[in-house]
Input
Amino acid sequence: MQFARKGIFDMVTMEFAEKFKEVASVLVDITPGGARYWITDTEKVIWQASSQLCYASKLEVGTKLMPGGAAYQAIKNKQNVVQDLTASGTKAINAAIPLFQENEVVGALCVAFPKAHPLERAFPIFAPMMAEMFPEGVFLWLSDREKLIHRQGSKKYDIPEFQEGSSITSNTEVVQCMQEKRPINSEIFNEQYNIHVRMMVAPVFDEKDKEKVIGSFGLSMPRVLAVRLQTMSDNLTKELEQSAAVIQELAASASEISASQQQLHDNVKNILALSEEINNILAFIKQIADETKMLGLNAAIEAARAGDVGR
Output
């Protein structure tokens, strides 16, 4: 995408461009994401200043102007030119202002800076701090729709095979997140590292078109401690269930013992009652025996008194 415009920078002179060099050498490194400034004559680059940050490598002095470039178009059309190069995959903005000597165009003053999402610009700042905030470590990433563009591992946890430029199209959660335009949370078992991992990934939307997904932001963190606690909890639950079963068995046994004791108590009462009846019968028998004995004694006395006839 390319468009031209006129503004207050029409009729900028080469003398102004020479003075601008001092300012540009400072601006390149304070521009978010980095920047590049350069000055051309009508054919080639004659001066340049590139950022030490994450922007592209510096532009060599002496590089010929490209016919489709912003500088070439600004010189040819004698007007300011801004090019949005996002569509070509470079994700940058190039701008050029024609430089005049009297009424003749003698070159161009140009600037280029990356066209990056705010999250992409902020990632190198917040990601290293976040990586050390999790007790078991964490791996963070930022991607476009096809590959990783930023990554941040931690001392305790990292995924070495996921490097900048690695394809993300095989990752089910990431693809689902971008297709459905919603955050995805999942827990998986990483067979390579033999650990449970929790993954959270969210879609990244274009700043101008809030319905357009341009990438994903996500994190992956190990769940070793959580799984260990879950296992302990499960084991404790099983032990409590076993203890409850034993207690129920003991309660049932105690109930049976109580019933047996009651029955024994009833049997003892019956035996005591029977014993009392036996004692009564024995007393009656003894009474009869005593009376029989007394009768026998009286009979013997009477017989003795009667003599031989009585016997």
Observations:
- The chain has two domains: 2-115, 119-222.
- The first strand starts at residue 2 and ends at 5.
- The domain at 119-222 is CATH 3.30.450.20 (Beta-Lactamase).
- Residues 281 and 287 are 10 Å apart (CA to CA).
